[in-house]
Amino acid sequence: MGLLTIGRDTDVETAYSRRPGIPPRVIIGLVIAAISIFSYFASSSYNPITEQKQHISISKEQEIALGLQAAPSMERQYGGESRDPRKQSLVKEVGAEVVSKSDASKTDYRYDFHLLADPRTINAFALPGGQVFITEGLFKHLKTRGQLASVLSHEIGHVAARHSAQHLAKQRLTDGLTGATVIATYDPDNPNSRASAQIAMMVGQLVNLKFNRSDELEADKLGVRFAVDAGYDPRSMVKVMEILRDQARSRQPEFFSTHPDPENRIEKINAAIKEEYPQGVPQGLQQ
User: Fold this and answer.
1) Radius of gyration, alpha carbons of the chain
2) CA-CA distance, 95 to 148, in Å (whole number)?
3) Chain CA centroid to CA 68, Å
């Protein structure tokens, strides 16, 4: 009797231990995903410039500090500050004018404008907190003060809309969800699981690229508003897009690019101008 009882218990324990269950890696992945989602949605604030609620995990003071810390490195990457004091002064003057006369002045950021010495790279960008840059490679193609104001207005729009901070939060969410997916789906005993892990990483990258394209279009729309507030004709921004289009030698397909195609941006900018000024662009604005 005793031997039969022991044998029966052993059989029960063996059968129980072999029942299929949730693998530990899946549980870990679910926990990581849950923490990532909760952290993202728990950090939110209202932006009066865009009139939208944003999920942001850093303060404005931290944004300013990040921008100031990164600025010297970015300057070195593009050959340092321009050696032409007249051009440098013009960039700072127009940038300050746009800020002071637009809603950008209602933000807490320390805007500063820099002309970079790189004569070949056609680019303009903004760091979190208000550090705005334009290369001589782009500056030399601009024909009017209004075109310069349009470029700077667009970059000011990125800062005021807190796109960098928003992107950091989205990146953390995407990294968390992608990492959770990789952990949950990767099986070292199954080589085929590597494909699903790679797909998860690629999807995460494409999600963030779309966020970047959306940010560019929103900055275009804010740039239209800021430029007019400062007394500049927003149609100058269309001219800038035409310059970028004409200077482009080759591009990746738009879906895999962080910036929308200039031709598509022209269409969106014209739509934003019509939406903002349905009765027509005000007269007397500087080109």
Assistant:
1) 26
2) 9
3) 18
What is the structure's pLDDT at 22? 72
Closest CA to 212 of 252, 257, 273: 257
First to last CA, the chain: 101
Decide: 247 and 141 in contact? Cβ < 8 Å: yes
Distance of CA 268 to the CA centre of its chain: 18
Amino acid at 7: G
Q: Token digits for 84?
A: 């032409």
Mark out the alpha helices in the chain (DSSP H runs).
2-17, 24-42, 60-77, 85-101, 136-139, 145-160, 163-185, 193-229, 235-247, 262-276
**Is residue 134 packed enough to be buried (19+ CB in 10 Å), middle (13-18) or exposed (0-12)?**
buried
Q: Is the pTM of this model over 0.85?
A: no
Give the separation between CA 107 and CA 194, rounded to whole angstroms: 46
Map tokens 């903004």 to a residue: 126
Give the max Cα distance, the chain.
105
Dihedral sign computed on CA atoms, order 268, 250, 227, 63 = positive
In the block, tokens 């968390």 appear at: 176
Place of tokens 């009882």: 5
Reported as a single tens digit per residue, the pLDDT across 186-204 is 566 665 555 555 555 555 5
What Å distances lie between residue 60 and 36, 95, 129, 136, 186, CA to CA? 22, 20, 7, 29, 39
Give percent of the chain above pLDDT 70: 67
